[in-house]
Please model this.
Amino acid sequence: MSASKAEVLDRRKAITRRVETLLGQMTLVEKIGQMSQVEPGHGHAPDNLGERLRAGLIGSVINVVDVDILNELQRIATEESRLGIPLLIGRDVIHGFKTIFPIPLGQAATWNPALVEQGARVAAREAARSGVNWTFAPMIDISRDARWGRIAESYGECVLLTSELGAATVRGFQGDDLAASGSIAACAKHFAGYGAVESGRDYATTNIPDTKLRNVYFRPFQAAVDAGVSTFMTSFSDLNGVPATGNKYILDDVLRGEWAFDGFVVSDWDSIRQLNIHGLTENDRESAYEACSAGVDMEMAGDAYSNHLLGLVEGGDVSEEAIDAAVSRILRVKFELGLFENPYTDPGSLPDFANAEALNVAREAALQSVVLLKNDDGALPLAVPETASLAIIGPLADATYEQLGTWIFDGDESLSITPLAAIRSLVGDTIELRYVRAMENSRSRANPEFDVAVAAASESDAVLLFLGEESILSGEAHSRADIGLPGDQAELVRRIRAAGKPVIAVILAGRPLTLSDVVDEVDAILYAWHPGTMGGPAIADLVFGNASPSGKLPATFPRVVGQIPIYYSQKNGGKPPSKETIVHIDEIDPFAPQTSLGMSAFHLDTCFTPLFPFGHGLSYTRFGYEHIRASAAEIALGETITISAEVCNHGDLEAEEVVQLYTRDLVASITRPVKELKGFRRIRLAPLEKQTIDFELHTDDLAFYGREGRPVVEPGLFHVWIGGSSDAEQRTEFRVVQHR
Ligand code: BGC
Model:
C-alpha cells in the first residue's frame, strides 16, 4: 500500500538527516565515487568492477538487466564496501520494458495522460522486476522537426501536451512513493533544447533565444519538476555556444535556483568528455571542471570525474562543498528509493512480464494512438460481408520487430502480434486474405514482387497497404533529410492504385512523414506510428470497426520537408499568408508587376498550410462543435473563466473524441503564437449524444515569460477556440483586465 502524503513528507525530513550523517562519514574519494556511473564491461568501465565497488568508487551502473548479477553487485556495494551505499541501476525504459507500448510520439497521439501514466507504471514494474531502479525517461524535448530521429521519443511539438504527458510519465514511473515496490526513479531529459538541433541533425547545435527557451523548451521540464521527477539529464547539444553539459545558466541558475529542483543531474553518455570535442575545454580535466561547476552531479559512462575531480578539489579549483552538494543530491534519491533498507530485487514479488493487464494497457494505448488522417467516402471501416476478399500488402504488415519502434533494449519481439496475425485471427475464414510482402524492407528498391502484389490487389475487394519506416529509420542518430516514404513505396502505392480497388494505407513510422505524393492515391490513411507489442490487434479492431479511431496528431505534418519547421503555434509575423496573398510557382505571370505576388510569408512551390494540422484526427462518426461561449466578457487578473462548447456525435456509432481548447493573446509586449493549446479532454459520446464541455481557464494559464524573463499576464483581448484540431473554427473572446 502506498504511503500517505504526511508520511512521505516525514520521510523526506528523515532522509535529509540521514544524508548529512552519511556524508559526514565519507572520504573525498568515496564522494567522487558516488558521482560516477559505469557500464560494466564497456568503454571506460573498469574491469575490476568488484574491487571498485568494494572501494566505494562507483555510484551507479547502467545497462545491466540480469537480476542475479544486479543483486550480486548490490551485495558487494552494500555488504563489502566500507559504508555500504547501494547502487543506482540505470536503464533506458523509453516506451515499455518487455511489453512495448507505442513510441512516445504515438502515445502522445492518445492525448490521454491517464493512459500514458498507466503504461509507464507497467514499464516501471517490469523494469523493477529485473533489478532496475532508475530509468532515463521521459524525453520531453519539444520537437518541431520531423527530420530529427528522436522526435519518435518525444511527445511532439506542443508545450502543454508535452508537459502533461511528461508529468504523467513521471507519476507512472515513480508512483506516489518511490520506495514502494515497482516504483523507479524517472529522469527528465535532455535539458535543454535538444529538439531544436539545426536541420534536425542529431547532436547538432542549437541556438534558442531566452524567451523561447522559457516559453517553449523549458516548460515541460518545469512541469516535470512540479511532478516530483527525481533526476535530470543534460543534452548532448550546444546551447547558444555553451554545451548543455557545461551550462551553468540552465542547470544551476534556472533548474536549481529558480525551480528549486532538489534531485540530481546526470550527464548524457560521456557528454562531459565531449565538452572538449565541442571546443569548450582543452582536456578531460577542464571538462570535469566545467561540468561540475555547471551543476552536473553524476557522469554517465565517462571517466572525467573519476580521473580528475580529486585533483581539482585538491588543487582548489572545485570546492569540497560543491562535491558535497552533488553527492547529497545523489544519496537523497537512493534513500528515497528505499535502497538502504532493501537494495535487492525479488522478482517473485512483482507482477509477471507481459501479463494480461500489461498487454491490455499496451493494446488500449495502441488503439488510442492511431490517427485516421483521411477517410474518403467512408472507405473505413471495412464492412463484412461486402469485403469478401482482402489483399494485405507491404513490408510492415507482418514485421514483429519493426512495429516495436526505436529504443526497445529489453522489448520482447516474440510477444508482438502483427497486424497480419491479428487480422487473420479476427476474420477467421469469413474473408479471403491474400498477403504479399512486396518489399524486403521499407527501404527496398527494385522489387520483383510488385507484380504479385498488383495481382493480389486486382483479385481482392479491397487493399490494406502497410507502409512506413522500419524502426531503424528513427531514434537516436537516425535523422533523415528526406522524410518521404523510403525506398520504392510511393511506386508501390501507384501500382496498387492502378488496380482500381479501394486502397487503405496503414502507416507505421517513427515520425510524421511527408505524404504529399501518395495522399491522393489512397482512399484512407491510418497513421499507426510504431504501435508496439499489441499494435496488430489494435489496428485490426480499427480496420474492421470494432472501435473508432480517436488519435490526434501531436505534431504537424508538413507537405514537403522545406516547410520545416512548421507547427501550429507559430507567430503571425507582419505579413501573414492567406489565400489572397499567395501565388504558386506554376501560376506566376511574368508580365504582372512583382507586387501582385502578394508579399507574404509563404513558399512559391507549396501551400502555406500543412498537409495535416496539429490536433487533427478523424473518426468513423462525425463530431460537431457549436455554441462556444465564455462565462464572462472580461475577467480580472487572478480570476478564472469558463469556456464551454457543445460537442455532438452526429453519427450512429459510439466513439471518443479529443476536445481541444486554444487561445490567442492578441497583443502583448512579446508577440505571442497565433494559437496555444490550453486544455484538452478525451470524451466518449453515444450516437447522437450531445455534451457541453467546460474548460476552466485561470489567468495564470495565460502567462508567458516576458521581456524581463519572468512570467507575466498582460491585460488585453484573448481569442479562444474549442474544436477537434488546431484548425478549430468555433471561436469566442474575452478580455483580461487589471481590476474589476
Ligand atoms: C542518449 C540518452 C540515453 C543514454 C543512455 C544516450 O546516447 O542520448 O537519451 O539515456 O544514451 O543509454
